[in-house]
Amino acid sequence: MDNLSDIRTVRTVMEKHGVSFSKALGQNFIINPSVCPKMADLCGTDENTGVIEIGGGVGVLTNELCKRSKKVVCVELDTRLLPVLGDTLSEYDNFECVNAD
Question: How far apart, in Å, do the first and last CA atoms of the chain sit?
Fold first, then answer.
């Protein structure tokens, strides 16, 4: 999904799915457009590497990892975010989300 680093896009996707941030779950989503690409670059993944991400949020970092990795498995506790991740990462066939803690 284009512009996932734009707070307006994040709000639109969250509203579309009726989701709001949860303080109880300590949710803080990184959406800075320079941070997530840099994190994905620095983790050393490539087209032959699998990645496990804990807490995909709305998928900003996950999106960057999917661009670089053979497979990305996201472990997401918040069931409300599963359809959000399905929406924001629908273009990737190398993405899987597991609802677990």
Answer: 26
